[in-house]
Amino acid sequence: METSFTPIQALLGGSLIGLAAVALLTFHGRIAGVTGILTGIILPKGDWNWRLAFLLGAIAAPAMILLLTGMSLPLQSDIPSWAIILGGLLVGVGVAFGGGCTSGHGVCGMARLSTRSIAATLTFMATTFVTVFVVRHVLGGF
Amino acid sequence: MLRVLSAAAIGLVFGTGIVIAGMANPAKVLNFFDVFGTWDPSLLLVMGSALAVTFIGYRFVLRRPAPVFDRRFHLPTKRDLDVPLIAGSALFGIGWGIAGFCPGGAIPALGSGEPSPLIFVAAMIGGILGANALKAAFTRRQALA
User: Fold this and answer.
1) Cβ of B109 and A62 within 8 Å?
2) Across the interface, which of B11, B112, B126 has its CB nearest the CB of A75?
3) A19, B117, B121, B123: which could form a disulfide with B109 (CB 3.0–4.6 Å)?
4) Does the structure's ipTM exceed the value 0.85?
């Protein structure tokens, strides 16, 4: 499934992600890692309210964009449900042991020049690359 | 109240960034990794700009004695590389490569009303709960030994 190169949206979207990360540290003293924020709700630590508010704000984004611009979120996927479930389980187990995902390690941790986050990011970028190669070019897709 | 509203507003900015960037679109995410196929380099600019803004912003924020709504900054304290970090990250990447969703992409995608992010997030929460049960059992065994 082809998608076109969208440099302006990529730079704008990426800058907003960075802005949110800086704001969350400024106001709440927290790392904007979705894994960590979510885990604090499903394994309650007693400070679920700001976490839930952050996630609900994120979930409201497509609706707000639709309301303001009339554009709906382009969500293209030809992945069958069983593969989405398998991927979800692996992501869940992986981030629980690895202590973070693209936002936590890849953006916030890398920005802190954390050795753990740099190692984690290099590792998951490499395994994602290999997985996509194997799925698409060895197995020929799902 | 102000604290919760602030978190919601920041979440909205984060989600808007994710959606505009295309991180909530599995086809776009997977195409970034498909250099030998339908390559779409957009995510390189997403990561690059997010990282640049965060890198510069964090330098200024961390000069403050404390955040606005808390007494202290909550930053990770672990420094050593260990097996769970690397093995977990490797598994995460495999799952990301299969489904095309990462946690930060899937949560805002829930707001699209499509079923696929819902299926993904439910499975991911199952994975997090399972892994934590396993970790707890392992810690108990170590404590007994």
Assistant:
1) yes
2) B112
3) B117
4) yes
